[in-house]
């Protein structure tokens, strides 16, 4: 599972600055070519073991812009991401 940025994003950049694994890019670097921020699901670790919620969500001034409640197929949920998957050697996306 990875965080998702919804269409109410105001593109302030706070989430990019706070992401510890550089999983979020702005609209200019969106690999899908869309005019919106993008989260690389294979990089996002949801800040497990460091914060009660993803750092990007804590930094976001727009309530409800960053969500992580839906489990993506083939990807572990926040509760199942252990320290072994956070060391930079194991991709989060299974």
TrEMBL record:
Keywords: Iron, Iron-sulfur, Metal-binding. It holds the Pfam family Fer4_7. Residues 1-29, 35-71 form the 4Fe-4S ferredoxin-type domain. The keyword DNA-binding does not apply. The keyword Metal-binding applies. InterPro entries: 4Fe4S_Fe-S-bd (IPR017896), 4Fe4S_Fe_S_CS (IPR017900). This is Ferredoxin. It comes from Campylobacter aviculae.
């Amino acid at each position: 599972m990875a965080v998702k940025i919804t269409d109410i994003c105001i593109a302030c950049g706070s989430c990019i600055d706070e992401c510890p694994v550089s999983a979020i890019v702005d609209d200019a670097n969106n690999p899908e070519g869309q005019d919106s921020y993008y989260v690389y699901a294979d990089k996002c670790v949801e800040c497990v073991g460091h914060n009660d919620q993803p750092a990007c969500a804590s930094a976001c001034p727009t309530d409800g812009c960053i969500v992580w409640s839906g489990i993506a197929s083939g990807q572990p949920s926040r509760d199942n991401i252990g320290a072994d998957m956070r060391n930079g050697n194991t991709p989060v996306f299974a």
